[in-house]
Structures are given as C-alpha cells and as structure tokens.
Amino acid sequence: MPLSMPDRPVILTGDRTTGPLHLGHYVGSLQNRVALQSTHRQFLLLADAQALTDHAHDPAKVSRNVLEIATDYLAVGIDPEMTTICLQSHLPALADLTLLYMNFVTVARLERNPTIKDEIQARGFGRDIPAGFLCYPVAQAADITAFKATIVPVGDDQAPLIEQTNEIVRRINRQAGTEVLPEARALIPSVGRLPGVDGKAKMSKSQGNTIPLSATADQIRDAVRRMFTDPGHVRAADPGRVEGNVVFTYLDAFDDDPAAVADLKARYVRGGLGDSVVKQRLDDVLEAVVAPIRDRRAAFARDPGHVLEIVRRGTQLARTVTDATLRDVREALGLFALHERCDANA
C-alpha cells in the first residue's frame, strides 16, 4: 500500500458510483491519475455517499457500481500499490467534516455555484432540490481536505467546486488562526469536457450519451455511426465545418497522429471528404484505445474478491488519514475533546 510517500504532493479525486466509467472520464481525469500516481500520493474515492444525493430512490444501483468502478480504475492502469482506492461511506470523518463545514458556507453561495446550477437544471429539479445535492460542494470540500490534498484532477466543469472548497478552507483557517488545511488547485486536462455522442451536452451517464470503457467493438462502431457531424455536409463534395463537429472533437482527443487529423480537417473543409471516411478513422482510433482497457477489465472482473480486497485495504488506510485530519480540525477550532478531558481527569 502507498504508505511511504509522506513528502509527495497529495491528490484526491474520485467518481460517484452511479454507473460504469466512460471515455469522458478517461479524457477528463483518468489519464492524469495514471500519469501522476508514480510521483504523487494519490487517493481515489469511490463516492457512494455522494451518489445518493440524487439516487436515494435506488441505493442498490449505487452499491452495485462500487466494484464496477473500482474495476474500471484497475483496468485503465491505476496501481493499488501507488494509489489508494477507498470507499467514501466507510470513512466517517468525511461526514463529520461535512457537518462542520456547513457552518462556514451559506445557502445562497451554494445556489450560485455554476456547477450546481448547471446540474440542477440538467436534472430538472426546479425548487425540489434534495438538500444533499445542494450541499454537494460542502461534502466535496470535506473529501478533499480530509486527505489534505493540494491537487484535484477534474474536468473544467468541476473547477467551481474546487474554488468553493478553497473558500471554506480559508474560512476554517481564519477561524482557527492557523493554516490547519491546505488549499487545492484543479488540474484540468487540455480536453476539459468531452461532448456526448449526441453532441448536445458533455458525455454523461445521466444523459445516456456515453461510450463506456468496457464498450465492445460493435458498441463503439454504433456510437461513432450515430455521432453528430455537420448537417450542411450532405455530400462528400460539399465543404464541411470542423467547429462543433463531434467526430473531429473526438479525433483531437484520442488520435495520436495530430498531423493526420489536421490533414483530414483541411480536406473536409475544402470538400471532397465524406463523413464515412472520418468516422471510420475515429472508429479505429477508439477501438485501439478501448480494446486493451476492455481486456484488462475482463480479467479483473473474473476475480471480484481480489478487487474487493483492494478496496478494503485502501479504505482502512484512508480512514487512518481522514481521522487524523478530523482531529486536527477539531483541535484547531477549539472543539471539546472528550478523550483528552477523560485522560486529564483520570
């Protein structure tokens, strides 16, 4: 387990356990996590408690996806000897910190958070917003600070949540009169948000417009075939638009030959290049990316007991870390320390 990296920068990130991970996660965060795990102390949180903020009607789905997402992590190259994979609901310090932090943020500020506003609109909550969902930024602040993380790999749509975390950190530190918690910075990849295959929104499990990391060759082919291109590009001879063309967006994100992609774009804009040619290239590119992940995932899925043990061990380690942070915050805020009082009176 990654216990011997106390001086390395700490990364905290994770995913809500509401469904399989997809290529949007891969571009937005997973690639960074794999690349950074050898140089940073990294914690990956299986966020089952936060998943309940809008899935309380289906807790079985949340529970079912814990091992699914842990398996996805291992399949993309997360090494449990370098990265701690842990289960949010089994870390009680996170709930205690969330409750404390709620006293350092207003409802109005939560409602102004751009990420929360967008998600509320996307889910059609109106004013029937679950309290747990509205307080999602506070819970995320608890997650990040519990590990004293200074780096959080996220997509660009999640950056406002990191800023709200830092606002809470500054208020806690100001109240405590000391820097008990560090601020964190968002690590945003060059392709911060991957559109869904429908071209209408970001790739999202809730929108049903994803390509999962376990997608078969046929599923990839079908998704690419349905992708939005340029509605004005009716015939191959017609000049086409690259801007807003989902197929080219995906090629920019996944094709490891940017010169070839640039040539395709130039030919497409001039006219004389059919959508089918561009989509075939994307199909080949995505299959090359997903196939090894799919194969590794199948191997891990054959031994769920091994995956569960990785999560158990990681959660035990994470509990040690988060419990220590909770003690630090309580002490810094001058809260009553029952054990210390009992020891003093013994």
What are the main properties of this structure?
Rossmann fold, two-stranded parallel ribbon, Tyrosyl-Transfer RNA Synthetase, 15 helices, 3-stranded parallel β-sheet, 2 domains, 5 strands, 346 residues, mainly alpha, globular
What does this structure look like?
The chain is mainly alpha-helical. The protein folds into two domains: 10-194 and 304-345, HUPs (Rossmann fold), CATH 3.40.50; 214-298, Tyrosyl-Transfer RNA Synthetase, CATH 1.10.240. 55% of the residues lie in helices and 7% in strands. Helix 11 (246-254) crosses helix 13 (275-301).
Architecture blueprint of SSEs:
Blueprint: E1 10-16, H1 23-36, E2 41-47, H2 48-51, H3 59-76, E3 83-87, H4 92-101, H5 107-112, H6 114-123, H7 131-134, H8 136-146, E4 151-153, H9 159-176, E5 185-187, H10 217-225, H11 246-254, H12 258-270, H13 275-301, H14 304-333, H15 338-345
Parallel strand pairs: 1-2, 2-3, 4-5
Helix pairs in contact: 3-13, 4-8, 4-14, 8-9, 10-13, 11-13
